Automatic annotation (TrEMBL):
Species per Swiss-Prot/TrEMBL record: Streptomyces resistomycificus
Pfam families given in the database record: NTP_transferase
Protein name as annotated: Nucleoside-diphosphate-sugar pyrophosphorylase
PANTHER family: SUGAR-1-PHOSPHATE GUANYL TRANSFERASE
Ranges for domain Nucleotidyl transferase: 3-227
Amino acid sequence: MHAVILAGGKGVRLRPYTTALPKPLVPIGDQHAILEIVLRQLSTAGFTTCTIAIGHLGEIIRAYVGDGSQWGLAVDYATEESPLGTMGPLLNLRHRLPDTFLVMNGDVLTDLDYADVLNRHRDSGAPLTIATYARKVHIDFGVLTTDDSKVVAFTEKPSMDYHVSMGVYGLSRSTLEGYTPGLPLGFDELVLDLLNARNQPHAYEFDGYWLDIGRPDDYDRANAEFTTRKSLLLKGA
C-alpha cells in the first residue's frame, strides 16, 4: 500500500510555531513530531511505501525523515516549486503512483485506520473517498430567516451539524486524468468537478479521535491530550 503525504504548506495559521519549522514537524508531546506519528501509524497499518510532497522548508523534512527506513517505510519525495493546491502535487507524480493510494495532510492527528480507508476506497469503485467527521457548530446569535424584507422564521442560538473532510482521502490514479501537471488543483475543485460529472465521491464516516493541527488552539489541545492518547495514537509504542 502506498501513501502520499502533503507537507508543502507554509502553516501560516500556526505561526509563530512554523516560523522556523515546517508544520508537520512541530512537536507533539516530549518526543514526537506530527509527521513521525503519521509515518509510524502508516507503517503499523501495513503501508510499505510513501511519497512526501514538500515545499516550504522541505529540506528540513527530508533531513528528518530520510529514506523512512527507521519506521519500516520506503520514502521518496516530490518537491513543489510553487504552490499547487491540495491535489496539484499529485499531477506531477501520476506516473509514479499505483492504481489506488492514500492521500493525506501531514498535520493530522487521528486514530483513523488508514488501511481501511484505502481498502474501502478500492471496494467502492468511487473516484475519490473522503474520510469525514461530524462537527456541531453552535451559533451564538438568534438566527433570522427573511423573505422580501419580512422575517418569516426565527431560531434562538441554533446548533448546526456538518460532515467535514478530515484531510485523508483514498484516490484512484485515473481520477487525475485530464488535469495538467504543473498547474494548481485544489481539493474543492476536484470534488466539484466530480459532482458536476455525476461521478460522486464516497464518504468514509469516522467517529474516533481527530484533530487538524491548523491553529494554535488546536496545537495546544493536541499537546495537552497527547499523554493520555499516546497508546491510542501509537499502538505498540
